[in-house]
Structure formats: C-alpha cells, structure tokens
Amino acid sequence: MSTSISAQDVRRSLLLRREIALLDLRHEAAFATGHPLFAANLDAERILVEAEIRLPRKDATIVLYDDGDGLVDNAAAQLAALGYSDVRTLDGGLTGWRNAGYELFRDVNSYSKAFGELVEARRHTPSLPAEDVAILIEEKADIAILDARRFDEYATMNIPGSFSVPGAELVLRASEVAPDPDTTIIVNCAGRTRSIIGTQSLINAGVPNRVVALRNGTIGWTLAGQDLQHGAARRVASGDAGAARRKARGVAYKAGVRHIGREDAAVLAADVGRTLYRFDVRSAEEFAVGHIAGFRHYPGGQLVQETDMAAPMRGARILLADDVGPRADMTASWLAQMGWEVYVLEDRFDGPLEAGAQAALAPQDPAHRYKRPYEGTDNAAQAMQAYLDWEYGLVDQLERDATHGFYVI
Predict the structure, then answer these.
(1) What residue numbers bound the domain in which 44 lies?
(2) N or C end: fewer C-beta atoms under 10 angstroms in the chain?
(3) What is the CATH number of the domain that holds 138?
(4) How far is it, in rounded angstroms, from Cα 241 to Cα 11?
C-alpha cells in the first residue's frame, strides 16, 4: 500500500529541487485537459512498457494521481512489482491539487512550451507574420527557411521552399544553407515553441545573419490562407563544424553547462542516490551506426520540446552525448535554463561503441492520444487559434504558478 503525500509537500519538493516524479495516470487526452506544471503523463495502461525506461532509479520518489478514475492503487502495485520502493499517492488526486489553489496547465509538454514563451518575452525573439514571409517567397528574396521540427513532421507539411533542420542541428547546419551573412534565416515549426527556441539558438550562438521566427509556424501560415507543401525531403549537410562547435560551447558556458570526461561520467552513473538520464542527441541514423553504451537516443530539439516525456523525474541529472559537440551544447544550454543539472560528455565517442537502432516503444492507442492542433493537415481553424491563444497566456500562468525556476540568458 503506497503512502499519501499532500499537494503542499509535492509543491515544496518541486520548489526545493528535490528529485520527484509527479505522474498523471490518465490517458494522454485526459491529461491534456489540465495537470500540474511539472506533472508527466504515464498512462496506467503503459506502466509495464514505459516505467523502467523513463524512471531509471527505483528508490526515487514517485507520486501518482488521477482524477477520481480509480487508477492509482493498481498502478502503485504494478510499480512495486517492478521494484519501485518509494511510491506515493497525491492526497485527493487532481482535485486535491486544484483545491489547494494551485495552477493547472492544459495541453502536453506544457512546461517546455511555457519556457519557450518566457524566452520570447524576455529576449524579444524577432518574428515575422506569415503574410510577410509569403511576400518574401513570392519576391524571391534572399531568405532561407529552416524547419526545426522532426523530419517526419516536415515531410507531412512544410512551408514552400523550406529545408528540414531539426532544432538542435540549427547551429551546426545553418551556415551550409545560408553561407552569405546577408541571407535572412527564417525558422519555423508547427506552432511557436520550436520556432522561438530555434531562432534564439542561432541568435545566442552569434550567427552573422538576420534570424527571425515564422510567427506561429504552420498554424499561422494556414490561418493566413497560405498553402503548405507536402512530401518534401530537403535536408541540409553539416556546415562549418569547427565554428559551430566554438559558438555552441560559448552558449553552453554562459548557461552554466558543465563538460565532463568519461571518468567523471562514471562517477555520476555510480551515484545511486541520484537519477541520471543519459541521452544521445544526434540523429537516429547516427545513433544506429554507433553509440555509447547506456545512452538512449533523443534528438536534441525534441528533448527540449518533450522534456517531461524524456525525463519525468524532476530534479534529476542529465548527461548528453554528441560526437560533434554543438548539438549537445545547444540542447544543454536550454535544459540548464529550464532548471536541470545538465552535463555534456567531453571525450566524444573515442571508446568502444555499440551499433544498432533503438528499440521503438509500442505506440499508444490512438483513441487515447491527445489530438495536437498543430499536427496533421486536417485541423479546424478554431482549434488552431485556441491553441495559439493558450500559448500566449503561458507567461502569466507561470507567474501565478511560481514553481518553475526558469532563467533566460
């Protein structure tokens, strides 16, 4: 039988940066209707599939809740059977959190998206509306449009003439597609977060080009009545890796990221009192060719976007690996600003490597998945606009919640 914990004690643990995983056991679609900022969704039906990957330390504190759905007791028993020894239940579940006067955040990956909005608010990240970008395309202006989403998202729908450059790759590859400093670089995603983070990444790294975000991404493009392309496959090779490495290293240093060698990494891994997530932030193809044992593949741009999915244990340590360097440094710079204790592995891939693709998790039931208003090509205009309106309000909601601990360099 798991012990209970109050909403006040969970919030205190988050404020004091103790290790804690606050897990919402509902289906993702229900989770998206409202949850605490740092809650992570672990569908009760997927505990046996996901728990040991997402929660690597079995004596860390795990707090379970639902919304009166009767999921907690069975979930606690499953986790105990897997060897988790500190499983607790949130007093009153989601209602208890709400009754304590604490904020509920809608959608998925909410704290990553809220962080992106905070970055734009504090750095005044420049952007252009879809109408202006469409004019630039029509006039054949000197621009390069870089899509910061996953390649499969880009292939589904993209801004005409754009190139696929997933977020963590931008600093590494921008000079290849825009070698002339007079070329304006426009970064887009489907909505806002990856556009903001991608644009600000290039600005933080000091690229000589003018860099702007496509305001509101493909949502904004569609709402402006512009047409999208489908099935594109324009990728970009690496640019000047040495220059990118120097730029990214400087950004990571400013954010307080620490670089460590294999011996220090082994010490981190041997610390049984702390959770350590180890992520290889390169492409899936590079990972399959050869990766360091013990590292899971999570491309850097998605790691910043989906941090709650990749690392639900808030307060854990994160160690990143990248054989070139800029992808890990830029990813780490953002994770550090989001409050993570993050390290970059310094001696890159100079030892024995393992080959092979990472085993894919069984997909969740589509009926239980939250339909994202920015994915696919059949979204209602009303849903897309409502999503944007929600994102615009996240900075104010962060202030009301007052647990985030984010900073912006």
Answers:
(1) 1-106
(2) N
(3) 3.40.250.10
(4) 43
